[in-house]
Design brief:
The structure is a single chain. The protein has 112 residues and is an alpha+beta fold. The model has no long low-confidence stretch (mean pLDDT 95). It has a single domain, classed as PH-domain like.
Amino acid sequence: MAGKFVLKRSGKDKDGFVFNLHASNGQVVLTSERYESKASAVNGMESVKTNAANPARFELRQGTKEPYFVLKAGNGQVIGMSEHYSSDSAAQAGMDAVTRAADGAAVDDQTG
């Protein structure tokens, strides 16, 4: 079942844009980098939709204490990052959740 992208303004002066990908249960499964323009953020969401279907685009990383993952575009640029997980297997389940949520995800534009 598809999830939903939530697009919001970001930064001290609200002059940037970020998006979160929510799973069908409402949980945030991926957070974007900060974008300077809304058009770039929209392109980022499209890139998530495209790249989340390819397991090779996910990279499991180790934080200070807990694993997390990033989703990369074809050019190697990070387009989203997960929360930290209790184990590698939990992070893998998070990657699977991103793949399911991104497929056909709607956009909730809260930028006003």
